[in-house]
Amino acid sequence: MNPLIVIRGGGDLASGIALRLHRAGFSLVILELDQPLAVRRGVAFSEAVYEGTHTVEGTTSRLVSPDQLMVSLEAGEIPVLIDPNARILSNQFLTSPQNTFLVDARLLKIAPEPLDIKLPLHVGLGPGFTAGENCTAVVETRRGHTLGRVYWEGSSLPDSGQPDGDPNRVLRAGSDGTLTTHVEIGDPLQKEQLIGEINTQGGDGKEQIVSPFAGVLRGLLRNGFEVAAGMKLGDVDARNDPPPVFWYRIKPWRLAAGWWKPSWSNLDKSNTNRSVRGYYRCVRITLRSKTAGLGYTPVRSKDRESSRSSKIR
User: Fold this and answer.
1) What are the residue ranges spanned by the domains of the chain?
2) Is the CATH number of domain 168-237 3.40.50.300?
3) What is the pLDDT of residue 243?
4) Residue percentage of the chain with pLDDT more than 90
């Protein structure tokens, strides 16, 4: 039986990982909050929680109940469950500890709550995870030479507290209140153009959210969302190129590739059983293949040696 990959979080980075694994032919499910907080909604499968379905680069995610999970998978979709506490991991009718891989892509930046179930492979993204303590392996999420690197011991680089690139691109709330938006994701913006307003609690005023520079709106919370002071509201891209706003960046692709990058010696040292290690090998081969979108094909060692020899010739 092929493992089910469970991804906690459906934001843009988690969705990029999900899309790459889905294109490689693997079964996966995304677990989300009842009110997802993704800002880059154009490329976040979590939007299915609000819309019912959401399509990114030709792949559709669908909000489902547990009893609809298998139907969605068989339809070639990415099912999304409202399950912030990952109860699906304890549902013996949907998952089994021996055949479930977990990716925690919530980017909490703090140590996650402990799981009450042991899995053969539990991967954590970014700060807050320590390999060997609260997960099997940690994937580096900070941009730079180590982006996508997998740590089988220790932790990733600590949270810098600053966003990648120009920090002014990130829009944040200065007060608590209700967000009213005046533009849409993908719209071109002029410097100091009004993006939205926060109707402060108590109704005694409005805080204006304006663009820090000319560019294109890459992300924005939904209209009517209740926000708190300091909360991330949106993201402006100075490159002013609307189409890429709805494409995945290189970062989630690197993180997905990093998932399967470690050497075999690390897995052999773990308690991971032989069937899982064999599947892991097939995942690596599929993701590295130029034909990754064609689906899952088990590869035997002698077939791999034959293929390697034919390439040399």
Assistant:
1) 4-161+250-306, 168-237
2) no
3) 73
4) 58
Give the integer Cα–Cα distance in Å for 254 and 259: 9
pLDDT for 201-211, tens place per residue?
A: 766 778 999 99
Report the pLDDT averaged over residues 196-223.
91
- Residue 98 pLDDT more than 50? yes
